[in-house]
Specification:
162 residues, alpha+beta, 3 domains, 3-stranded antiparallel β-sheet, 37% helix
C-alpha cells in the first residue's frame, strides 16, 4: 500500500498561518498541522499548540492611520493601537501671509514661467538655424502662456494681499 499524501497547514515562527504544504508519508513537517484553518475576513489564523486548534487574531497589516497625530502603518496582526484614527490630523498653518504668497508663486506661477522661458529658448534655437516659422510658433505659445501667468499672479495677490 502506497503512502497517502496529506495536506498540512503551515505556520510561521509566530504561529500565524502561511499556507498549505504536503505530508508525503514521512511524518508531519515542522511548523505544520493537519487541522485546516478557517478563512475569516479581517482575521489571520494563529496556531495554538497547547489546545491543538487555530485561534483567530484581528488582521490590519498594511493599514495606515494615525495615533496621537503620527502616521502609523500596522505591521503585525492584532487589535489596532489605542487612539487609532483613519483621519489625518489637522495641522495649523502657521506661515505668514508673505510666506503663503511666496509658496503660491513657487507652486502655481513658477512652473508657467519655466514653460514660457522654455518656449523662448526654443525660439532662439530655431532662429539660430534659420527656421523662422517654427521660432514664431514657439513665441506664440510663450505669449499665450504669458496671459495665463499674469492671471495666476493676480489671483495670488488677491488671495494673499500685502
Amino acid at each position: 500500500m502506497e503512502n497517502e499524501i496529506k495536506t498540512v497547514y503551515q505556520y510561521n515562527k509566530d504561529k500565524y498561518f502561511v499556507g498549505e504544504d504536503s505530508d508525503y508519508g514521512q511524518g508531519l513537517p515542522n511548523n505544520c498541522t493537519y487541522v485546516r484553518p478557517q478563512n475569516r475576513k479581517g482575521f489571520v489564523a494563529q496556531w495554538n499548540q497547547k489546545d491543538g486548534k487555530w485561534n483567530y487574531v484581528e488582521n490590519h497589516v498594511g493599514e495606515i492611520g494615525y495615533v496621537d497625530g503620527e502616521r502609523v502603518e500596522v505591521e503585525s496582526p492584532g487589535k489596532l493601537p489605542e487612539g487609532w484614527s483613519t483621519e489625518a490630523p489637522v495641522i495649523e498653518d502657521t506661515r505668514t501671509p508673505e510666506q503663503k504668497r511666496e509658496h503660491a508663486y513657487i507652486v502655481e506661477a513658477d512652473p508657467i514661467a519655466r514653460r514660457i522661458d522654455g518656449y523662448y529658448i526654443e525660439a532662439d534655437a530655431y532662429d539660430a538655424v534659420g527656421d523662422e516659422p517654427i521660432a514664431n510658433e514657439c513665441r506664440k505659445k510663450a505669449s499665450a502662456l504669458l496671459s495665463q501667468f499674469l492671471a495666476v499672479k493676480k489671483d495670488i495677490r488677491t488671495r494673499f494681499p500685502d
